[in-house]
Amino acid sequence: MSEEGSIRYDRLQKISQRSLQESVKFLTLQRMESCYPGIANAPKGKQALQKAMDQISNYWTTAATKEFDAVFEERDVKTKMKQLDELIHEAEQRRERQETEGSEGPIYLDSLTPQKVVDAHLRTARQETVEALEKELADLRAENEELLKAINNDGEALSNLSTAIQELFGELGSSVQSTSSLPSRSELATFTSEVTPQQ
Q1: 154: how many CB neighbours lie within 10 A of its CB?
Q2: How far is residue 53's CA from residue 42's CA, in Å, rounded to a whole number?
Q3: Which Pfam families match (predicted)?
Q4: I need a labelling partner for 145 at 20 to 30 A (CA). Which of 11, 24, 84, 102 fits?
């Protein structure tokens, strides 16, 4: 096995990035325009909305990536994934050796040579090692399941954040529309002069 990196760790990173990209796709220029029709219809308004959307997406992506990295580092995911890779590789090698060697017939102790006795003890020791490795493999798999649950929870949090951002855009859009419907300063001045008693 390579001393650098881990196939499963790289795959886990790709999964987390893919889930983040899917969440970011929710923020589109069309949704921005529906929230800010006044800005969208203004000269260069769409360009301004596109720039704002890009800034939000970049910030969101950077912040979420840092959060993923912090979780991976806190739980030492890279090391555990490398250990899992090695355990699976060793298990595959043992299975291949067993298939190649095949099963053996009955063993008679009085016919064993000293070397075979030693080999038998070594085989017992290897079997104990195998059982210990299998237990460690099961533990690592359980930890990996917990990590995947954490990633899924982070993905759900990102989705909730996306929904919150959309709601905020909707509220801001409503505020902009309400502001645009208010009377102008000249209209207020005219109204004030009409209702004010003449001296």
Answers
A1: 18
A2: 17
A3: Nnf1 (PF03980)
A4: 24
Token pair recorded at residue 160: 């909730």
Q: Which residue is listed with tokens 């059982």?
A: 131
The 10s digit of each residue's pLDDT in 92-142 is 887 787 777 654 545 545 555 666 555 655 666 667 777 777 777 777 777
Q: Answer yes or no: pTM beyond 0.85.
A: no
How far, rounded to the nearest angstrom, does the alpha carbon of residue 13 sit from its chain's CA centroid?
Answer: 7
* Placement of tokens 């595959």 in the chain: 92
Q: What's the mean pLDDT in 19-25? A: 83
pLDDT at 150: 72
Residues 7/76, Cβ–Cβ less than 8 Å? no
Amino acid code (one letter) for 107: I
In the DSSP assignment, the letter for residue 182 is S
Contact 147, 75 (CB under 8 A): yes
Residue 8 neighbours by CB under 8 Å, 6+ apart: 81, 84, 85, 144
CB neighbours of residue 117 within 10 Å: 11
* Rounded distance between C-alpha atoms, residue 96 and residue 100, angstroms: 6
Contacts 24+ apart (CB under 8 A), 180-188: 180/38
